[in-house]
Amino acid sequence: MKNRSVDFVAKTAVVAALYAALTYAFSFMAYGPVQFRVSEILTFLAFLDPAFIPGLVLGCIVANIISTVGPIDMIVGSAATLLAVYLMSKTKNLFIASLWPAIINGIFIGAMLYYVANLPFLYSVLWVALGEFVVVTLVGYPIFRYLIKKESHVLEVIKVKK
C-alpha cells in the first residue's frame, strides 16, 4: 500500500512539474488570445490513467502563476483543465478525447479573455480552441496513438500503480 501511495505522489509531482516547465519554456506562445501550449500534449496522460488528473491540474495552476491575465487564470485555466482531462479520461476513443481540450479551453479561456481583456468572445473562443486543436489533436494525437499501438512497454512504465 505504501509503495502505491509513493508512486502516485511521485508521478503526480513529476507530471505537475513537467507541465509547468513546458509551459514556462514555451511561455512566449502559451498565454494570451492565441496560444499554443505545448504542455497540453500531456493531457493524454488522463486518457491513459485518470490518476494523472491531479498532476495535470496542479501543473496548470503552477503554470498560470505567470499568466498574462493574472491570478484569475489560475482558477479558470485549472478548472478548464480539470474538466477537459476528466472528460478525456471518460472517453473511449483517443481521437474524440483529443478534442475535449480544444472545446473546453476554447469556451473557458475564451470567456475569461472576454471578461478580463475585453476581447471579442467568439474571436477568443475560436483562437484558443484552434491553438488547443493544433497542439493536442494535430501534434499530440499521432504521438500518443503511436505510443499506444507500438510502444506499450513505454506506457506501462508511466502508469500509476493502483
From TrEMBL:
The organism's place on the tree of life at top rank: Bacteria
Keywords per UniProt: Membrane, Transmembrane, Transmembrane helix
Transmembrane segments: 12-32, 44-66, 95-115, 121-144
Entries under InterPro entries matching the protein: QueT
Protein's recorded name: Uncharacterized membrane protein
Record organism: Clostridium amylolyticum
